[in-house]
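Lecture 7 notes. Example A: sequence first, then its structure tokens.
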Amino acid sequence: MNVNTDAEIRRKNLNKICATFETQQELANVIGTTVGYLNHLLGGYRSIGEKAARKIETSLGLDKYSLDINVGAIESPIIVASNVAPEEL
């Protein structure tokens, strides 16, 4: 049985969101962090904890707990303000 932790689900969702931006720098600017820190989150070197997840969601205009949705397990995709269409996730 393959169980995704909250941090893994958040990382996968953040990677999907990142793919909708032209550069990682652009996403880092929007969420108010450095590219280095963003790379650590995207690569799994740093865990996306509760506080960081909520800050990222707020910065992107997402509903609270949007990063926690396991898109592969259910049909409700994350929608990022005007950056990504549901069918892209």
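Example B, a different protein, same format:
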Amino acid sequence: MEPLNFPQWPEVLVQSALPHGLKRSFEITVRWYLGFCRRGRAEVTVQSARDFIAWAAQEKHPGAWQLEQWKEAIRWFFRTAKAVFRALQISSLQLL
């Protein structure tokens, strides 16, 4: 899989319909994940996301609900990035 590049994710998250508290939680988790990638010189990929979750579970010993919330934040990040990318592709095609 190609590395993901989604620099506008904070703006997209702010504009999402998610409840404020969930937005804040997702923001913290996504920043944590991206920092994990940066520190480990890893690309932003599904595999690095899996590695991050495995590392976080082992290091932080979260409850099941907390681990699921971290996973959901990462899922939101990847799903939304793909949706934004598809929308941009469609927009550029319409300009032709």
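Note on Example B: The chain has a mean pLDDT of 93. The helical segments are 9-15, 20-39, 46-60, 64-95.
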